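in:
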């Protein structure tokens, strides 16, 4: 699954804009509870990662149960990713300023409450609202967890081991979520894919109170509230405009659609202009204007746009067209998760030898081929010949992108900006996933409606498959554009990568 963890290398300042207020390693003895604290933090990270893949498997049943339309079904994912990505940088600053332990606990308990609300939701509106709340609390929880790791493990070798455990949890958690989501949806209810977070979060919070020490940053503690409002409102307007265009009888030329898209353009341009002169910007523009770093963020944004939609449409294809059970759907995605984990280990060894650019370009080319392979699927395709090769190509291609791009995003960055530069990767991926999913769902819905109108005798399954093909072609286009951007902008050499670059992934 797409990575849902922040990508901060050992030793870097976690998401936020200020350095942690900690004494040098030689001045204090290591916290004897640090490994137990790691277990608690890892469990919290597992919950956040699980929430992406576990809910994906349940979307068809949730949509049928609550009567969610084709145009609106993407909000089950988009509401979460948009809130998560849009508030992530602010969440890092909040953790630094009010206390990382306090923010961690607020994030845990808030995530539990939002999950319970979503699991009990009687209609789509409350479900979407609960998913947005989950994303907002995840934006507090994720950077606080990474910050706590950085200040808890002060010895470089121990810190590297801690981040290794954290990364393994992030990678393996997606695969666990696929199976757990299938089991809960098939044998209990889709509602339990959200409800399962509640006991996990409460238990983790109880142990965190006694095992984790408080820490916070020193210095100026101002928040860029206008920047948050402009960026979040702009992104929501953009996604909502895409969604309105997908509704039956609305389309791209409808005044409501045009109004939301126009408002999005004004708000996002306003955000950039404001950040240029803000004294304490949410996103310092110097971080993204470097060609290597900016290229890395654009690559992650476009990869998120392509991959998130692939998972949604394949989930519906497995369950609605091929008749897979939710559990069978979970197992059908496992080759992708396994390929990413295996591929990342191989790429981490190759990166110091060949440098980032060849790996990124080759990985994106392989991912484009994998996405186009999915256009072979039909109403009765065989998984082994029509889906499995695409999953393998996409997974190894993405491993070749994620690991080196996580390093090129930190090339030439100062320690003061390291946390923001790292957090921007996850922000770019989540925002890209939100926008791509909304846009491709619009193209999918239009393609299905057009095929049903042009050839009603072919039946709905043929129309749905045609819609999947259209979505996969556009997703391949996003990945191809990412390839062009990587080839044009990313020029970092292997000797320019930050120390322990492979751990940055």
């Amino acid at each position: 699954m797409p990575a849902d963890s922040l990508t901060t290398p050992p030793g870097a300042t976690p998401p936020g804009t200020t350095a942690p207020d900690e004494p040098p390693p030689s001045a204090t003895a290591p916290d004897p509870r640090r490994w137990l604290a790691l277990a608690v933090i890892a469990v919290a990270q597992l919950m956040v990662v699980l929430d992406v893949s576990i809910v994906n498997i349940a979307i068809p049943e949730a949509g049928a149960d609550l009567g969610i339309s084709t145009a609106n079904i993407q909000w089950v994912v988009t509401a979460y990713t948009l809130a998560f990505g849009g508030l992530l940088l602010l969440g890092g600053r909040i953790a630094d300023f009010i206390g990382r332990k306090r923010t961690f606990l607020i994030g845990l308990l808030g995530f539990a409450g939002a999950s319970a609300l979503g699991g009990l939701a009687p209609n789509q509106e409350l479900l979407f609202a609960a998913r947005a709340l989950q994303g907002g609390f995840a934006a507090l929880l994720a950077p606080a967890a990474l910050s706590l790791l950085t200040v808890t493990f002060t010895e470089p070798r121990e810190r590297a081991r801690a981040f290794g455990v954290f990364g393994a949890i992030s990678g393996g958690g997606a695969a666990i979520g696929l199976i757990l989501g299938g089991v809960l949806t098939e044998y209990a209810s889709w509602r339990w894919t959200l409800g399962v977070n509640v006991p996990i979060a409460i238990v983790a919070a109880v142990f965190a109170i006694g095992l984790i020490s408080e820490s916070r940053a020193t210095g100026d503690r101002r928040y860029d509230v206008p920047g948050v409002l402009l960026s979040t409102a702009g992104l929501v307007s953009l996604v909502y405009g895409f969604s309105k265009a997908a509704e039956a009888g609305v389309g791209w030329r409808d005044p409501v659609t045009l109004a939301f898209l126009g408002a999005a353009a004004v708000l996002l341009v306003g955000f950039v202009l404001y950040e240029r002169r803000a004294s304490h910007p949410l996103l310092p523009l110097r971080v993204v204007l470097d060609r290597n770093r900016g290229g890395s963020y654009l690559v992650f944004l476009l990869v998120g746009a392509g991959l998130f939609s692939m998972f949604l449409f394949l989930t519906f294809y497995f369950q609605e067209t091929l008749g897979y059970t939710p559990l069978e759907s979970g197992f059908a995605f496992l080759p992708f998760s396994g390929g990413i984990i295996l591929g990342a280990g191989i790429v981490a060894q190759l990166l110091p030898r060949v440098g980032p650019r060849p790996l990124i370009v080759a990985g994106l080319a392989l991912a484009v081929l994998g996405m186009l392979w999915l256009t072979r699927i039909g109403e009765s395709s065989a998984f082994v010949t029509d889906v499995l090769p695409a999953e393998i190509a996409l997974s190894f291609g993405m491993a070749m992108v994620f690991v080196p791009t996580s390093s090129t995003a930190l090339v030439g960055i100062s320690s003061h900006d390291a946390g923001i530069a790292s957090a921007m990767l996850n922000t770019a991926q989540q925002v890209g996933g939100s926008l791509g999913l909304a846009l491709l769902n619009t193209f999918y819905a239009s393609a299905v409606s057009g095929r049903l109108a042009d050839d009603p005798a072919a039946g709905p399954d043929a129309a749905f498959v045609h819609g999947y093909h259209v979505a996969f072609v556009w997703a391949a286009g996003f990945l191809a554009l990412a390839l062009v951007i990587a080839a044009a902008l990313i020029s970092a050499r292997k000797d320019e990568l930050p120390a322990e670059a492979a751990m940055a992934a």
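note: Residues 1-27, 500-505 have pLDDT under 50 and may be disordered.
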